[in-house]
């Protein structure tokens, strides 16, 4: 997922990591040079869908920091070697 908006420097990656771990997902969230945050999430399809819904929810019921303008999903193959969920 690629998230655009006010998502850098506000605790967004930390919040994403916490929600992903609650949902049993593995992967990472990292800042991109263009101001977006890239989220790689692996796990049950329902959990990934729930994470996306939480990312896009406005107003946020889970105190999501920042503001999400858009969330674009790009599906890909499984990445090996991911354990837990990290902020990069």
Secondary-structure map:
Layout: E1 2-6, H1 12-22, E2 26-31, E3 37-42, H2 45-56, E4 67-72, E5 85-87
Parallel strand pairs: 2-5
Antiparallel strand pairs: 1-3, 1-4, 2-3
What are the main properties of this structure?
88 residues, alpha+beta, Alpha-Beta Plaits, 30% strand, globular
In words, what does this structure look like?
- The protein is α+β, with helices and mostly antiparallel strands.
- The protein has one domain: 2-Layer Sandwich (Alpha-Beta Plaits), CATH 3.30.70.100.
- Helix content is 26%, strand content 30%.
- It is built from 2 helices and 5 strands.
- The protein has helices at 12-22, 45-56; strands at residues 2-6, 26-31, 37-42, 67-72, 85-87.
- Strands 4-1-3-2-5 form a 5-stranded mixed beta sheet, with helices on one face.
- A hairpin with a 5-residue loop joins strand 2 (26-31) and strand 3 (37-42).
- The protein is globular, with a radius of gyration of 12 Å.
- It starts with a strand and ends with a strand.
- The model has no long low-confidence stretch (mean pLDDT 94).
Summarize model confidence as the mean pLDDT. Answer: 94
> What is the CATH class designation?
Alpha Beta
Number of strands: 5
Rounded Rg? 12 Å
CATH topology title: Alpha-Beta Plaits
CATH architecture: 2-Layer Sandwich
**What form results from the Cα inertia axes?**
globular
């Amino acid at each position: 997922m690629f998230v655009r908006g006010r998502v850098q420097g506000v605790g967004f990656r930390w919040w994403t990591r916490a929600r992903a771990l609650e949902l049993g997902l593995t992967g990472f969230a990292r800042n991109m040079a263009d101001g977006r945050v890239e989220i790689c999430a692996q796990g049950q399809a329902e959990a990934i869908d729930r994470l996306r819904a939480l990312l896009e929810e406005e107003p946020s019921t889970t105190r999501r920091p920042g503001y999400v303008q858009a969330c674009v999903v790009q599906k890909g193959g499984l990445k090996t070697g991911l354990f837990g969920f990290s902020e990069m």
